[in-house]
Design a protein that fits this description.
globular
């Protein structure tokens, strides 16, 4: 076990607990820039890290709050899982023929970070608009009542899932912030709690499939994974308790600006 990795896991967990931003957008750049890991290994390790750490959150949302819309999770997974598997097969093919995939992963990571930063900036706007609408919080209500595109809602949800499937598999970034913003846009009358719970529930199978795929490609460092988990779990617990004391309106723009700069560095290098 490396205590540097464990401390980094704690720091990222702390930020995730305070801001609610997905660990991928924070952890993967940290592993690449601070510890010098190959981007593919950083992405693969972080995907399994995310799948494990998000699981406890879903139990809370589903069991305690009943805030997971499994129908929407299924529609998103219908797009994300097949496209994640196809992306893994493409990566495997490039590795078999001896082509370097680091450049593709690095560029995609940069794009994903820039999109995540933009998502953080517009998230508050979408949340404020959603609060002005009458929320549909009855768990037995028809989700179509909360939908924006009515008859095209299912294809639009599947399409969003497909985009997330490719993006998350290549970069480990996007399942949290981008998924939440996409659901806020697609289902403007759905309660924020259900949006968060649904996005979290969808992220688990997506990150698990993508992470196991990267494991089969040799892109996961198990010692690193264990060290990060030991630090992150208490970090998330502490961060969640601090979140009520730190003004989100100040912290999120700062974090979004940092992610934007990091994303530009990945894209332009």
């Amino acid at each position: 076990m490396n205590f540097g990795y464990t401390f980094s896991g704690f720091a990222v967990g702390l930020l995730v607990g305070v801001t609610g931003v997905g660990g991928g957008s924070l952890m993967t750049p940290l592993l690449v820039f601070l510890f010098g890991f190959n981007p593919a290994v950083a992405v693969g390790t972080d995907l399994l890290f995310a799948a494990i750490t998000k699981t406890s959150g879903v139990w809370v949302h589903h069991g305690k709050h009943g805030s997971v819309d499994w129908k929407i999770v299924g529609w998103m997974a219908l797009g994300s899982i097949p496209f994640a598997v196809m992306t893994l097969f493409v990566l495997k093919h490039f590795m078999v023929v001896g082509k370097e995939t680091t450049g593709v992963i690095t560029f995609t990571l940069g794009v994903a970070l820039i999109l995540t930063a933009c998502a953080l900036f517009v998230r508050s706007f979408l949340l404020n608009r959603a609060l002005k609408l009458k929320p549909i919080d009855d768990e037995h209500s028809n989700v179509e009542n909360a939908a924006r595109f009515k008859h095209f809602q299912i294809p639009a949800t599947v399409l969003i899932g497909a985009v997330l499937g490719v993006l998350v598999t290549l970069s480990s970034v996007g399942a949290g912030a981008l998924g939440t913003v996409a659901l806020l846009f697609l289902y403007p009358k759905m309660t924020t709690l259900k949006i968060v719970g649904t996005d979290l529930a969808h992220a688990i199978p997506l990150t698990a499939v993508a992470g196991l795929g990267h494991l089969s490609l040799g892109n996961v460092d198990l010692v690193l994974l264990g060290s990060l988990l030991i630090g992150s779990l208490p970090g998330i617990w502490v961060g969640s308790h601090l979140s009520a004391k730190i003004p989100e309106r100040f912290l999120r723009p700062v974090l979004a600006s940092i992610l934007l700069l990091i994303g530009l560095k990945f894209v332009l290098q």
